[in-house]
Amino acid sequence: MIHLDHLPVELLSLIVTNIDHKGLYHCALVNKQLHAATIPVLWRSPKVDDGSSILRITKGLSLARSSLGLYIRKLCFDKELLDSALLLFLDHATLLEELTILHAELISDKSIQQLSRRCPQLKKLRLYNANITHRSVHYLGQRCHHLRELALKGCHRLLPITLLPFADCPLEYLDLSECRWLTVEDTALDLVQFNRLTHLELVCCRTINLKFIQQLLPPPSPPSLDGSIQSSLSSSSTTTTTTTNVNATTISTSTPLPLLTYFAITGTPDINDHVITPFIKSHTALESLHLLKCSITDATLDTISTYLPTTIHALGLFGCENITSHAVRKLIRACPHLLMIGLENCLLPLHAFPEVTGRDGRYVQILGYADIMAIRSNPDTTTTTTTNSTVEEEEGIMHINDGDNDMDMDDDGNNNNNNDDDDDGNDNDNDMNMDAGNDDMNHNLEQTTAVPPQGNEINDGMDEVRALVLSLADNTHYSI
């Protein structure tokens, strides 16, 4: 019979990695062998609950005979934290790889500059509402060359060139939500350089417009040579022409952010089918797509059905009022791996989805896995389609901004709110502007101590959007 004290430390280490945090304390007191195997695991990610635990842990680091701080790889603070407290950890945790501060209102350049100097192995950094400036991100980009995940949510004091120092970092995850300093000229151009990026969140940024999204599209293909000109080229220049054409093809097919699987934005009225459709066509690896308050129509849903049928898992369409329930049902059947669709404020009548039961209210808010499976198992008939179209027509009449506006009907009897390509699908700009500018949405984000917006902006009307996206991003299994 083999006793625990006869097992090698390497094997014991594998065993204790499957024990919860509370159980690790008991293991550390069993014998010397288990103690030696448990301590590195116990200190790898110390549990920091409140101010008292911070003082207890930092005191333990200072009084320990061995360098316990060298075991620390991950720190997560979900309470307010002072620069002085963070510096106490950084004095010992020089091999830190992950740092998350959910309420960083009191964190400034003083501690973040030291973070970049003392923790060059940092791979993940998430700061919410930090009071940092460009000085901090400059040193982070220059010293932390292994950084893969970066979240700077609500860090209002940064500049449009914030991403420039991270040009050489292998960023895969980027969250700049609630940041108002993003620009087309600087931020968008720096953003497209991160070819390894798989996760991008730009929610409630206000400056994300048509031109910004256009920077994320492949460059247009160069015009082909006219046949008469090609025929006049000499044989000696054929090789050069071929090389030029090959290079042109390579450039035209290069797509910014080609590995993107998660994309979330809060749009403006000018972000419509004309820019979202080519974006979807050029990013066919998307698994989770959230287009909030965009002027998209059924055309975008058809594009998702065509280009993302086997990849899309989660879809958020908060505030997209120009889509119809018929297109949503069609999308569900075309995408067998779709698990969830967020439809809050899309004003789609609940009785257009008879499979959805046990819900109150007039409009559908979200379709979870059970709802989607029920819709897939209940094929639409001509009668059902006609009924849904009629319902949407009646509901659409209520959403007309001006009672004198005429509405054209499409072949299925649905309201067609984007029937003029010449004006870029902006027939509903008045409606969308009213929606985007609505300051009556007073739901609170989970970060109740967030830094208030600069200037005279008291409420940006985006709290409900934030709460929705956060719930979708944090819910890996999309269990509604």
List keywords for this structure.
F-box_dom, 480 residues, 18 helices, 37% helix, F-box domain-containing protein, eleven-stranded mixed sheet, disordered C terminus, alpha/beta
Walk me through the topology:
Layout: H1 9-16, H2 21-27, H3 32-42, H4 51-63, E1 74-77, H5 83-90, E2 98-101, H6 109-118, E3 124-127, H7 134-143, E4 149-151, E5 173-175, H8 184-191, E6 199-202, H9 210-214, H10 227-232, H11 238-253, E7 262-266, H12 273-282, E8 288-292, H13 298-307, E9 314-316, H14 325-334, E10 340-342, E11 366-367, H15 369-376, H16 382-397, E12 408-409, E13 415-416, H17 429-436, H18 463-474
Parallel strand pairs: 1-2, 2-3, 3-4, 4-5, 5-6, 6-7, 7-8, 8-9, 9-10
Antiparallel strand pairs: 10-11, 12-13
3D architecture notes:
With 480 residues, the protein is of the alpha/beta class. Among the domains are: 42 residues; 221 residues, no CATH class. 37% of the residues lie in helices and 9% in strands. The chain contains 18 helices and 13 strands. The strands form two sheets. Strands 1-2-3-4-5-6-7-8-9-10-11 form an eleven-stranded mixed β-sheet. Helix 6 links the parallel strand 2 and strand 3. It is globular and about 70 Å long. The two termini are 49 Å apart.
Estimate the global geometry from the Cα principal axes. globular
Give the helix proportion (percent range): 25-40%
Kindly, what is the distance between the CA atoms of the first and last residues, rounded to a whole number of angstroms? 49 Å
The number of strands is 13
State which percent range the strand residues make up.
5-15%
The largest sheet is: 11 strands, mixed
The SS-based structural class is: alpha/beta
Q: Determine Rg (CA atoms, Å).
A: 27 Å
Query: How many helix segments?
Result: 18
Question: Stretches where pLDDT falls below 50 for ≥5 residues?
Answer: 227-253, 382-388, 397-460, 475-480
Q: What value does the average pLDDT take? A: 78
Strand order, sheet with most strands: 1-2-3-4-5-6-7-8-9-10-11
